[in-house]
Fold these 4 entries.
Entry 1:
Amino acid sequence: MGSSVGSEVVIIGAGPYGLAASAHLRQAGIDARIFGEPMSFWERQMPDGMCLRSSWDASTIADPRQELTLDVYCREVGNHWQKPLPLARFVAYGHWFQQHAAPHLERRLVRRVDTAPGAFTLTLSDGETVTARRVLVATGIARFARRPREFEGIPTDLASHSSDNVDFRRFRGGRAAVIGAGQSALESAALLREAGVDVEVIARQNHLNWVGLHPRLHHLGPVSRILYSSRDVGPAGISRLVAAPHLFRRLPRSFQDRTAYRAIRPAVAGWLKPRLNDLNISYGRRVVSATPSGGKLRLQLDDGTDRLVDHALLATGFQVDASRYEFLSPAIAQRLTTVNGYPVLTRGLESSVPGLHFLGKPAAWSFGPLLGFVSGTEFASKELVRFLGRRQASGS
């Protein structure tokens, strides 16, 4: 295959951040191509039956004219949607958003990104190469699934990450241990039990942290607006702080780290509580070893007890690690400055490699936890447009 005409920008990834960026760049008249399968992580790596923990308003993908909100989509398709928002409905909304905001999406994968004089060269899955002055990485968190070391080497039929499962019915009639104490863990446990699985949750925490059990705090008029941002990330007060990334990133690093943890610590939505009645939860316990045993998995806990299960579901979250971007050439990877796996970004979400930008969760170390949520798509997209607009105006 040959090399196509160069673009100003190439976006890798077609989840909420890639789609929002494409919509904003298109509106700003900035030439951009976008590659990827729309909403692929949400559609293929999250269990059927799940709901979004985020509020309705915080689950809208940003578009520059606010014409593609969840409310608009709901009116257009003529359905009244329940709250919390079912995953399947959000995926359908994402596809509708893509059709309107990024109809030029190319459903091909980027296999490699190399540097070229004043640009980047991208090799696609069909062998074609394209060039671009800037590359926006918006590939989501799928490659960052965290698997505790105790489960290294355990076959996936005995232990899998929560993002490796779509249909829990395959575990029907068996016994499963869910490792974790956040929304993914507890909602997965509820779905497993509802699918006919004997479930135990093993949580390091001594209790569950709940979100939304005090709805009156959100109905205090001006006081609520002071305490909470519509971005819906973090508890009262912190919610407002993390909703202003440029302010947040100027705070002392130690304060940022403490505040970010408080905003995104493992927690469970209040609407899930009725589905957890009588759920078997072992608090304050940690798995210290996992060993296959006669077609099952034996889990040794730190209190000396053990569990023999058919499967361990690892709802252990995601840990950003830029070294897992297998499509970045070694030359680019070596120039990429990171902290704890996160690329270090400056204005415009630009990395230490000029012209290489990161959207979504990988931007969270530099700009705060808002960038790990759908509600952060507005900030990220507007920041990109402002940055690229200034660069175009200056001719750089």
Note: The radius of gyration is 22 Å.
Entry 2:
Amino acid sequence: MPKKYVLGIDQSTQGTKALLFDATGGLIARCDEPHAQIINEKGWVEHDPAEIFQHVVKVVRTVVGKAGIAKNDIAAIGISNQRETALAWNRQTGEPVYNAIVWQCARGEAICQRLARQGAAESIKAATGLPLSPYFSAAKLAWILENIAGTRELMEKGDLCMGTMDSWLVYKLTGGKEYKTDYSNASRTQLFNITTLQWDESVCSRFGIEAKSLPQVCDSNALYGASDFAGYFDAPVLIHAVLGDSHGALFGQECHHPGMMKATYGTGSSVMLNIGETPVFSQKGLVTSLAWSFDGKVNYVLEGNINYTGAVITWLKDQLQLVASATETAEFAENSNPTDKCYFVPAFSGLGAPHWDSDATAMFTGITRVTGKNEIVRAALDCIAYQITDIVQLMRQESHMDIQELRADGGPTKNRYLMQFQADMLGIPVRVPEAEELSGIGAAYAAGLAIGLYDRVEVFKCIRHQKYQPKMAEARKEQQYTGWQRAVQQTLQHV
């Protein structure tokens, strides 16, 4: 009897999800497991790699049990992962030499400043498509080499693996047999040449990294090995797709052609525009990356990365305790005073695209005597839509493409106020799938397609959507957006 299920594993910033799909691509079960956010007084952010691996095994076992299917009926597995988060481990023992340094963590800033003083910024961007920044993996890996005793010696002996979360999971799941990453993840390390499609020896050298310590780069739908998930499966299951989470969402949103755009609303946000088979290099703060490589054919994207979007809602709930749950925020915003001019710029650890200012700090501005709880909550939601709008406007300018629609995914897209405000600010429809986790869906569908279980046209019909049309008057929209731009300029002045 043919195997008829596909597993998607989405290893994200806040936790790990397992998604189980049937033979038509329909989601039949899901399991989530959060992991610890390790944050110190300097604002450094880390994850425990061993905990994450354990949780990957746990959610797979749980979701199969929850669905009540025969575990041996799973045909393939696809993995999507938090990008830029970097770690290093001992090739011989399989043990991490340090915690994973999360993409949000800016501890590599001094390394980037040093390289900038050496005049390396332009050559690094020309090769990798990425502006020199501690946001990406390279500076994080360089920090490990410079600060964790014994790591450089391990590297020189060829016994150090340095990669992103996908390569760590592939390595662990295959018992150390496979050390691989895909083109989407490689393109986000700031070590990969997106034109030659190879690790760039010159750029690696700038960061003090030997390219031989980096994983083999494979097609996003390649075979990454097989795993029995710590003895759970009777026979190893094929891992047949790996994608960075935002790239998985782009694929899951069916943005397969140039001019199609999606925004993932997670802890932070990635706005991606498919620009086809030829790269476009931004002059105004966007980055150029690889969308994916399927069967030897690459697609490029323009991308804008935002550090804090969904995390702003978490901050309202956990730190400020203004709301008991994220679902309350829409009602508070809808009940706010429409004449209030409060803005919030969420630069908790600097601003990402298009500003790339690691020294900026968060601020409220425009607060008056009438500003209250509702208005503060609304300003926090609005800042998410404003930041997305900043990116979309730049993409229109630099790609010269006519963008007709934004496809949105992630937990915050369930917020009706936020999605309507997003459509109003952009002036184009926003299409939101009923399914929440497009990253894992994209990876699972890629795996199912790779083994021939799914049909490329039919499988995406499983995903239903809600569409938000712009309603706000043009004059009102311009007034609102101009106020946001003023607030950002105040933040960038470090006042």
Note: The longest helix spans residues 373-399.
Entry 3:
Amino acid sequence: MSTLTALARAQARAGGEAQPLALVRHLHIAERPLVFIPLALAGEANAPLAAMIGDEADSPRLLVVNQPRNRDERFAFAAELARVVVPYLEGFATQAEDVASGGGETRPRFRYAPQVFMPSRASIGFARLLGRSTRFRRTDGEYAVDAAVPVLGRWLSFLAERAEHPGSCLLVAATEVLSLHWASGQSGLEDLNLAALMAWIEPPGGLTCLQAAAAAEDPLQWPPAGPATDPGFDNEVLAPLIDAYGRADGAAALQRAEAALARALSAQLLPTWGLMWRSIALLRALPAGGHVGKRWDEDRAAFTSYVSYLRDGDGLPQPRRDGAVAAARRLSWLERAQASYAAQRAFDDPLAMAEFRMSGEAFAGRVVAAEPDRLDTSGRRRTLRPRITVETTDPLTVETGTELRAVTRLTQRATIVSVEPGGPGEPIRVVIELAGGMGRSLVAEPGTVPETGEWLCYCSLPLGYQPVTDFPATNETPWTHGGPPVPALPADEDAVEDWS
């Protein structure tokens, strides 16, 4: 937890209401997101119990596993879930556009992409394991499953993998994105409870945040958002209903048992269903950050690539484990994506930038001197290199030679020439040299060089392209890392999971 987040939590607790951590929305909100709330059976590894799913707030669809310990019913549930999820996902793979890919060439990209909202990171973990448990299943031979089941598994695996990418919005955990934008007056662990977190952000009418948060701890009023259920519900309600279903004799008794179980599980899921759509509405009301669209373009590109793989490639399921080179590439990719995401958020949002101003990686101040027509004559050709002097009271850790970007001048490179510490109580003077974004002549175009008196915020976070680490080819994996891996082909043992 950062210093500013800790301060915001303390202020929320003292003031009795959530404090904003962002002035803009840092994720894309689709016009038609799919809300997916799963429940799992306690005591069984990733055993699906029920799910509420749908893309319209007033039309939830309830899926129930009447006997979660029965393998056939589990896979019947997976097939039913697939008939909801897969058409929703594939429905966005219809309209494509051509986008530039460098070198004067273009590549196709779908105009739209799906977006799935789940209550929490634990729910995403459930979806990941459900994907692993279904994507290797055979549709013929012994223990065959419905043809839609492995397709669902591959899609869930893709979405769960994409959810690890910083800033991706294809699969979203509601508690995670709400905590990114608001600070509650409770602990981070308590923020994992969607009802408690929403109580701080938007308490029900007539209640204070503290009263609403206390009420959210009552599992009878606000059941857990899944995938885990409340132990009291498991013992007092669920177990007798499942037992009654198992003892049902005759079609009428079986139908009554199924209806009773569906009513009980629906009552567990409906409060969370309402909270999910409220959270989406809250986020949608915030203005989008400047880089949100760019990250959504990356999501659309990833979605397009995966659809192409399923349609035009061999369509094999993702391997259970990455090879050494693939794992190293993925880790490097995630690290670069995290650095880029942090920089984008900072340049989009003054509250996010404040964290880096406190750490000395960014500073804000007023221009006190400017040389807009300065030329650099040290090389073979004269080049326009204006300099400005900025006074700031922010602490600085950046050094001479550090490259910066101004929040309001992202296309203009800036390099620190010197840093002159002031005396006690006096500002620091930073001399900065500018390059780019000023026209092609030796005279800067009007307005391209900051003028005296202008207030600027500079940051040293890398916002542009970051070079990719050079890794060996897969077939050149060194012996220290297991040597070249065996091609990942589906095998019977791949389908073995704890829930099987």
Note: The two ends are 39 Å apart (CA to CA).
Entry 4:
Amino acid sequence: MSDTTVELSNVAKRYRLRRGWHVTSLRDEVGRLTAQLLRRPVPPREEFWALRDITFSLPRGEVLGLVGPNGAGKSTLLKILSRVTVPTSGSFVVRGRLGALIEIGAGFHPELTGRENIALNGVILGMSRREIQSKFDRIVAFAELDRFIDTPIKYYSSGMQMRLGFAVAAHTDPDVLLIDEILAVGDASFQAKCANKIAELKEQRKTIILCSHNLPSITEHATSALWVDGGRTRMIGETDAVLDTYLEHVATEAASIHTGETSAGEGLARIHQVVTLNYAEQPETRFDRGDRVLIDITFSAAQPLPGVVFHVSAHDLQGYPLGGVATDPDTLKITAPVERGVLRLTLDPILFNRGAYSLSVGILESTTKRYYDLKRQATRFAIDGPRAADRETYGHVYYPHRWESLR
């Protein structure tokens, strides 16, 4: 038997973009049909290539981390491997039983009970009826849903459905496991079970493909990484090398492109620019953990704004909030119109772990919390940090620490 468990050769996926079925699109379809009948040229539908020429192979026991921006094609790749969709061209082989934690509970029926959905979802994942029966008690215990197992799952919370879906998938004994951001959801107990299951499968030398925007998760679990961008392979190889290059790209892109989204405010104050600078007060988008980072916010105000508050919040690559800071309305005041003002925030030291982050900046009234302006993803920056061999820290935030033995 081949030691290669996953193999892709020039896999590509194309979607034909169409508008919804409203009057205009029906008119378009009638026009296309008429043109075909009259043998007139028919304009082609717009095409979108989600993947192009993806080629790689994974030996047994490999843990591959998928990285890349939203819309890069990572989820499409996992859907092809799990046979949710088929490639437009190219071929792929998955040897052995496949387990997919792509969309938790995707095979559930809301009108059926938890018990009935275990049977349904188990069959979808390739388990026999006898196998489902033999593992039923373990699945229910794992999901911690014994009191609700005969209740229709339309009455389950999203967290309960998530636990049940993971419990079924975790007991398929897969040879290849696909995971899409599953480690970022659920409560602490659920995430611990996810991590323990991954550890168990790694010990059994199962092949795992993990898709995550959380770079510490990739660093912690993956033995190799694939960077996908625009549907194409940008780089594949050893985890540290791929992540270093990916972060370099994110930092370079952040330096040249600012993708701030401004909300509909009242126009009494505006955020015009947000720039990150290094200790020498030079524009910079890549820092080392522990550096001094300066954040300059250029703004204007049409009139005095008593009680104004500026806030800056940090987000990971997927947009999850990581906390932030705000000004004191009793200390920082706008007492007259401001044509061009600059407010500086100093983070010294910056304590984010290795990864890529964005900043959102807002101006609001302190009492009513009404926004004068809000710029989401006002700027992006990257943080370098310990390489994968350093396992002393994890997550997004670094906590200065010291270990000592008291005995």
Note: The domain at 259-384 is CATH 2.70.50.60 (Coagulation Factor XIII; Chain A, domain 1).
